[in-house]
Records
---
Amino acid sequence: MLASISNHSPSIWNAAIPKNKEKENEHHNAGYEQVEENSKEALKTELPQEEQQKLQYLKSRDQEVKTHEQAHLSAAGSLAMGGASFSFEKGSDGVSYAVGGEVNIDTSAVPGDPVATLKKAETIRRAALAPANPSAQDRSVANQASAMANKARAEQFQENQKLSEYSDESVASKISFSV
């Protein structure tokens, strides 16, 4: 009986209830869930309107931040360096809500490989702009990725020019020997 009035989670107080009382256990669980739901409702009605609005904002912001960072992670793929990290604010209900976040992405060029760098830059840009509402920082990263892509295209063009010149010289030398 002492366990049923404690402030522990059901998994802790259920351990104190003998296994041969499963029906009572189900009854206790149902009662606990109802008490928990009633407590949440009481908290809502006891809080001033301003606090309720603040909690609603924090809940909404938490969902928005987590969705935003998940979009970055999904689009970044293997370029993401770990998971998302969040900054939190504790609400008057004692719950911590995400109010900011970030995902670290590898934005380095692939040395000596402009084709791979171009592909990587395009992925970085897509990842930066993946959320529905990219932040100023997201747009800045996308602009840096565009610059990286442009540089890679220029390097690729130069390499193609060199190959073309080498190819032309090789054909010319073969022609002169075959005469």
---
Amino acid sequence: MTVPPEVGKKIDKLVPSRRTVLHMGLAAGAGVCASALATAAQRSPRNTDAALLNTALEVEHQTVAAYDAAVGAGLLTGAALELARHFQSQHRAHRDLLVEEVRKLGGTPAVALAGYAFKGADGTPTTFKTAEDVLVFALGFEAAATSAYLGLLPRLASKSLLPILAGIACDESQHAAAIRLLLKQQPAPEAVVK
């Protein structure tokens, strides 16, 4: 699965392409932003990393809300409910870790929206009729989160952040594999996670 378009656009706005950096003649273009984040305070690798972590934090806020909706639907029972609650707690831990890391970088952590409207591919609101609907919904978020984290890794200026984001990406991938097992699908459908 690829990075969701809205996350990809945010990433692309935060960090310019290599070609753009070369054209601008900047040897270390990590801090050049193509959006409102391109302020003097944002023109350092440290603050670019904070902006990238905030993109990841936005993904976690949305995923926590998705699990709130999934668990709140009341359709999961037994092992599926236990697993969903466990993943929900891990997403909260991811969120808290990212908040801490953004603050260490001198940034202001992204705040969760007051509410999230989840829609299907056809644009209609997501509704759950069965436990399988809930699991498919959760799988979509886990696969998208994995891709989002993998997309952020090469853009980080600080290599010390790599283990944190790579670890979260691995955890997201584990979540997806476990949900696939519950859905009686191949847990590792591809040799390389994208």
---
Amino acid sequence: MRRFNIIFGAAAMVLPIAASAEVICALGGGPSAAKPSSYNSAADERPSPDTMKIVLRVDAAYAPFCLPKCPEAAMFRNPTAPNLMLAVYPEGGKMVYAPAFFSSVYGKYGEAGMIALIAHVYGHAIDETTPSNWIPTNWNRELRADAWAGCAAAKAGLSASDLAAALGAMSAYPPPSQAVWGRRVPAVRLGYTHCGGETAKFDAASSGTKSK
């Protein structure tokens, strides 16, 4: 099992995408989305204060499940990033987002949409370091990250309208390897209900998302 040792916050070394790096997840959606190969780490910058406030909400949602603490991840903004991605290196790893992408997500889905997308990408790190016998072992890593994102949505205490927005963002910006939303809904639902969310609330919120 891969062990993450990532600084989740502002501290950070610049880790270039190289042969030794593995892009764990890069969200798709939209014709202007960059590809991981176009990412230039030299353009990395500290995330905006508003983004870090949202990141802290995701971190707090996952905190009850991480013993002794959650894996940490360096967070950067970079206009060459493929929307939002998690990359891992021998030295560590980081999450990187494109500012224009986050602006678009916020405009369409609000803070809840950003929480859901960050929770999915960070969910990969959580899944690698946190016991999760409630997730089926035959699920691929994107479905497992979806389950963790659903869990984070429940723990974040999203309202019914915010939950609908969060699911809308996840549907609109899928990982390319798991693009069919209808196949992802059961995973998100499992995580949401496992972590205390109401089944009826989730089903009502998900009914408005498109099954692509």
